[in-house]
């Protein structure tokens, strides 16, 4: 009996600690140009939209981010309550090759999505810490409130189960926000 009570309290502490840790995190500031040369600031001062960010940290992760982007565009493009962005983190790319990388991105990303594709060149260590970086070629997904505080996150290739988790988290966050 004592062991089961101790196990219960131990599990409760782990769950609460995880929830507090996720709830206390915020995204690093983003002030960058999207592929269409529009200025993107995240979190947006005074913004009201939840954010879904798809982050990639390597060339190969870009290929793995594409299916997520297509699915998000189909699902949330016309939903004014949620903004989504693909954020390639290019801080490690040599400055001489960055223009070539951007040219390749502009060619590979549909023009209609250029405003949602925002390469960043700073805060790499902060992004990696935020997403618990462990797999360089994985896409990392982060759902945040308008103020940039993290609601939910994961990483991995697009699957029905991961997409379902994201959709459930977004639905719950929107419902909780509506109760305020």
Report on the architecture of this protein:
- This protein has 180 residues and is α+β, with helices and mostly antiparallel strands.
- Helix content is 43%, strand content 18%.
- The strands form two sheets. A four-stranded mixed β-sheet has the order 4-3-5-6. A two-stranded antiparallel ribbon has the order 1-2.
Task: Pick out its properties.
single chain, 180 residues, alpha+beta, Glutaredoxin, 4-stranded mixed beta sheet, 43% helix, disordered N terminus
Number of strands: 6
Main sheet overview: 4 strands, mixed
Rg calculated over all Cα atoms: 18 Å
What is the CATH homology-level superfamily? Glutaredoxin
Poorly predicted ranges (pLDDT <50, ≥5 residues)? 2-22
Total number of helices: 5
Number of individual domains: 1
Structural class: alpha+beta
What shape does the CA trace take? Answer: globular
Mean pLDDT: 87
Task: Write down the CATH topology.
Answer: Glutaredoxin
- What is the first-to-last residue Cα distance? 41 Å
Major β-sheet strand ordering: 4-3-5-6
**Share of residues in strands:** 15-25%
Percent range for helical residues? 40-55%
Q: What CATH architecture label applies? A: 3-Layer(aba) Sandwich
The string of secondary-structure elements, in order, is HEEEHEHHEEH
Can you lay out the helices and strands and say which pair or pack?
Blueprint lengths: L1 H22 L6 E4 L5 E4 L7 E7 L2 H18 L5 E7 L9 H11 L15 H7 L9 E5 L5 E6 L4 H19 L2
């Amino acid at each position: 009996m004592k062991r089961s009570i101790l196990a219960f309290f131990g599990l409760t502490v782990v769950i609460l600690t995880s929830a507090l840790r996720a709830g206390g995190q915020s995204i690093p500031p983003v002030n960058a140009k999207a592929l269409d040369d529009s200025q993107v600031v995240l979190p947006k001062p005074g913004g009201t939209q939840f954010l879904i960010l798809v982050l990639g940290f390597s060339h190969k992760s870009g290929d793995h981010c594409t299916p997520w982007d297509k699915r998000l565009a189909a699902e949330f493009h016309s939903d004014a309550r949620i903004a989504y962005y693909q954020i390639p983190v290019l801080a490690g790319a040599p400055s001489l090759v960055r223009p070539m990388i951007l040219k390749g991105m502009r060619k590979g990303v549909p023009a209609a999505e250029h405003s949602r594709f925002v390469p960043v060149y700073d805060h790499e260590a902060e992004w990696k810490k935020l997403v618990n970086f462990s797999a360089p070629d994985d896409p990392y997904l982060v759902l945040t409130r308008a103020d940039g505080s993290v609601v939910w996150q994961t990483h991995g290739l697009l699957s029905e189960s991961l997409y379902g988790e994201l959709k459930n988290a977004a639905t719950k966050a929107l419902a909780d926000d509506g109760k305020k």
